[in-house]
Amino acid sequence: MPVMDKISRFARRFFAFGAGSSMALVFLVIFVNSLRRYTIGKSIAWGEELPIYLTIYGVMFGLAYAYMTDSHIRFAIFLDMLEARIKRYVLMLCDLLTAATGFSLIFAGHAFALRRGHVDSSGLKTTGDWLAQVTGIPLLEWVGKVGTWQYAIVLGGAMLTIAALLRLFERFKEAPAAPAVPSAPAKGEAVS
Questions:
Q1: Contact by Cβ (8 Å): 91, 78
Q2: What are the distances in angstroms from CA 70 to CA 40, 104, 119?
Q3: pLDDT grade, residue 154 (50/70/90)?
Q4: Contact at 8 Å (CB) between 50 and 123?
Q5: Residue 103 burial by CB count (10 A; 0-12/13-18/19+): exposed, middle or buried?
Q6: pTM score of the predicted model
Q7: Left, alpha or beta for 187 (phi > 0: left; psi -120 to 50: alpha)?
Q8: Does the pLDDT value for residue 181 go beyond 60?
Q9: Dihedral of CA 118/131/60/98: which sign?
Q10: Phi first, then psi: what are they for 120, rounded to 5°?
Q11: Residues 19, 58: contact at Cβ < 8 Å?
Q12: How confident is the model at residue 126 (pLDDT cuts 50, 70, 90)?
């Protein structure tokens, strides 16, 4: 199996695992928080906010996975009207534009996270401070900062760029469809 095919397979699995894990964690946090609320009357402090951030990360992983598998939303009715060769070139152009969009998301997301990176996340600040105190790792205070979670935009942009470039390579590698050539009538057939 060629190297690029292995990389594409790994990327698909990685994106799918990231999306699935994020959604599983969202379910787990909401389930445990609901159980606590209805059994002992107390919610976990970060149980309301963390699922929102995890969902954003899950969407970013899912976005890259959907692009890698060509299962994202698009106006296929227009593409379906094109002949195969032209359709391939249009899709390759879309891959390039998507890679450029993902690349711009990296820079925009980084600027956005830096601008508000120091702001405390109300539900996670205490947890971040506690983690840093218990482990002795001051870096864990960033769990309680909004910027940490806003970096989902940067990660999503990077994954979208990678997915679009891998799809571009796959489309480039595919043999272009040959134009339909009318066949000559067989001997003895009437030509109309």
A1: no
A2: 46, 21, 37
A3: very high
A4: yes
A5: middle
A6: 0.80
A7: beta
A8: no
A9: positive
A10: -75, 140
A11: yes
A12: confident
